[in-house]
Amino acid sequence: MRELVAQYLSHSMSRRRFVSGLTKAGLTATAAQSVLGAVTSVSAAQGAGAGTAPYVPQGAATAPVPYLPHDAAGPTPGAASAAVPGVKPFQGTGGAAFAEQLIACGVKYVFGNSASEDAQFYEALVDRPQLKYVLTPHEGPGAAMAAGYIKASGEPAVVMQAGVVGMMNAMGQIFNSWKEQTPLVVYSYRTDQSRRAGRDGFEEVANQEQLAQPITKYTWLARRPDMIPETVRRAFKAAWTPPFGPAYISWHSDYNDDRVRADIISQDQFDPRMRVRPNPEEVSRAAKLLVEARMPLLIVGDEIYKAKAAPKAAKLAELLGMPVTQVRQLYANFAETHPLWVGNTPAANLNSLTFPRNADVIINIGNKFQHNGPAPIVPRGPKFIDMRIDFASMGNVMLTEVPLVADVALGLDDLYAAVEQLMTPALQAKAAARAAEVKKFAEQARTLRALVANNPEWDQSPLIADRVTYEIAKFADADAIIVNEAGSVAMHSFDFNPTGGRELFYYYGSHLGSGVGTAAGVKLARPNQQVICLVGDGSFIFGPTALWNMARLELPVIVVIYNNHAYSGPHSRVVANVPSGRMVQTGQFVHDYLGDPDMNMADIARGFGVAGEVVETPAQLREALARARAHTVEGKPYLLDVQVARRGVGWAEKPWVPPIRLAAIRQKRV
Length: 670
Ligand SMILES: Cc1ncc(C[n+]2csc(CCOP(=O)(O)OP(=O)(O)O)c2C)c(N)n1
Ligand SMILES: [Mg+2]
Prior knowledge:
single chain, Rossmann fold, 6-stranded parallel β-sheet, 24 helices
């Protein structure tokens, strides 16, 4: 009998078989019914509704749900529009309408986590193999994978979760997409159905869609099931209209089961393909300022990568002999080997640049700028030209002499043409002299950067982070994609180049736990390029579940963990904040040490079906990288758990751990 109850509780036996099993076991019919009653109440309490009888509409609505009536004054969707190209009449469930509209939006991959009330959507996928569902075991890395795919392919995708509970786990990556301006479309239903909403039901929270509102470009709750396709279209339009950004859509879960008539419209019919040319008068003013400048400076930003305009930015810099830098961004937007490249701006403020110190005209192309201090990134004084499509923050902080609101690819074309027209032989000579000066500095800086290998700790074990980076840079393919979520590690030696060279996907949004998922999505989008994920141990452990996706889908990514068993960045920042306080005096840091016990990331990877190894020495690292390559050639991911030294002030050999030990207070050996 105990077995029968267990089987019934775990839903592996029907009610009828349970009762008949009980009577076979010798119980009277009445006794069996009373056991059933008792067991059912336990089951309902356990599942809070999940797995119990599905919702049955009451009264007249128990008949098959009819098509919803349409407004007689308006067009009848799904009927009259049959003849219009790109518009397909559709009849079926709301879930199937959702699938149809996704296909019409150009979506190939759906990244999702199991959501029982999306049953009709899953049902629709069976006969729509062009829409591929990638099951992700945690919504955070799942959303990161979707975003990685979108960033690396430039193609639309959707990520979906189980109601508000799943959405909560995805919020961190929606935040990252918001900060990075990635066109991620997110859907999760409302568990509360339309005829019982607002009663504090199972997994219900009021106004769920509003949770996403501050971190999305568009947030909407479809008000009727036949509005599902239009809601989906608007989400894609909002997300993919520059400046890009995430969108969140939702509807009551019963809408997926309702039958609807609606128009399915292909993306090219509703996407305005907004590509803006800059105001020609402003272009002339900018060109004049640039040619007259003593020392102009170009700041490149992510809109250049997104518009595939890096060669155009290089052409403009060359025409003017203008030095180029980048302030904190997601991508590398300029070839680091270019003679006019003067390096990234170290402290995200132009005053921290070694060269040039005296720029008199500064042009930003495509960076929306993160101001992390009271001083503006572009100091007051030099004339400032700002070119980007994301005009919202123009002029908010920096004094802007010339605003160029434009798609940066078109803006660069126009600006180049205007500058070229003004170039006299004298100006050309001035530009050439400046280029020579910049080149001299760039060469010196290159020599200095190479000194990283002269560190006296270069050969030590555990390895210093710079050595790990150096070895990987030596190992990486010429067109490798580096997904970087490696905490406080400085990127050097990769010589990134967005035009056919190595590309960078940085963790700009900084909600940690994105690296592994992003790398999985990038590899899905770019199967023919080597993908290497660099990740700190702390960051890795926020989101390792995408390893399972790498194993299942055979995504041959090399994951390298800089395992210093610590949050080294937060450690250093706390010490900088309270330099000679009690923490430093006593060595008691409560917030930063992840050792004792040490986490073994190679073991964790094995649990997800990904082979890997722990690496202790520089020599082992080289051998391990060769093994990683052998695995990826065979279509398998591989993980290196590289033991990295903790560096910085205040680290003890064996860091102190807060003395919370249950053994000291427990009184029962249970
Ligand atoms: C989701 C999330 N939680 C917490 C933080 C705060 N945070 C910033 S850096 C960091 C530690 C990163 O550790 P690790 O990846 O090991 O890099 P390290 O600092 O050791 O180089 C934390 C917890 C964050 N950015 N995101
Ligand atoms: Mg760490």
